[in-house]
Specification:
The chain is of the alpha+beta class. It has one domain (34-208): Transferase(Phosphotransferase) domain 1 (Transferase(Phosphotransferase), domain 1), CATH 1.10.510. The protein is built from 7 helices and 9 strands. A hairpin with a 4-residue loop joins β1 and β2. It starts with a helix and ends with a strand.
């Protein structure tokens, strides 16, 4: 988190004010936007976001993730629960780098998620894992990030997850639960740290209508 908070800072990443180390733990003092809620709760109370709201959230989220990439950091746990949204302006802050890692071009072989929660089936992060993790037990930073952003976008637009289980993720058949506009693609953002993509992997390019 010190890396991503170094100058020039990103307005869409929660600011680390101070931190302390004790023999048992690290203590971090973070900014708290006001008024704010985590994006998951905000969307739950509304049912879903309107397209204009979701578009603004997505642009800010990608800005935050591109900043992480520029600092050599992989967040690795993008989901609505790890995003704060100001309820008045809809500005967002990405938080919780506890599952993060240094960015590299090679395959990652694990996710930093509590194995006990996985065993109990209580880790919501599993819903945001890319299909190549389930198929190969490995993944690249760029494609995995784009996948989690896509799942997050579907979630905030439709008020539910796009896939119910591992089998659905591997099958990859996406159905929308509400009518959405198509629009023209005006902005294309690409996470470029992955030099190779498996042929059966999902695309690493994400388009946003401005």
């Amino acid at each position: 988190m010190i890396r991503v908070d170094s100058d020039p800072a990103c307005p869409n990443i929660l600011h680390l004010i101070e931190w302390f180390e004790t023999p048992e733990e690290y203590i971090m003092i973070l900014e708290r936007p006001d008024p704010c809620k985590d994006l998951d709760k905000f969307c739950y109370e509304q049912g879903h976001l309107e397209e204009s709201q979701a578009k603004w959230v997505l642009v800010q989220l990608i800005r935050a993730l591109k900043h992480c990439e520029s600092k050599g950091v992989l967040h690795r746990d993008v989901k609505p629960q790890n995003i704060l949204i100001r309820t008045d302006t809809h500005d967002i802050k990405l938080l919780d780098f506890g599952c993060g890692d240094l960015l590299n071009d090679s395959d990652y072989k694990m996710f930093a998620v509590c194995s006990f929660l996985i065993f109990l089936g209580l880790s919501g992060t599993l819903d945001y894992f890319p299909p190549e993790w389930y198929r190969y037990r490995s993944y690249r930073a760029g494609p995995a990030t784009v996948w989690s952003v896509g799942v997050t976008l579907y979630n905030i637009l439709c008020g539910t997850l796009p896939f119910k289980n591992r089998e659905d993720i591997l099958r990859g058949r996406l159905r929308f639960t509400r009518d959405l506009s198509i629009g023209k693609t005006g902005l294309t953002l690409n996470f470029t740290n992955s030099s190779e993509i498996r042929q059966d992997s999902h695309p690493v390019r994400l388009a946003v209508t401005p």
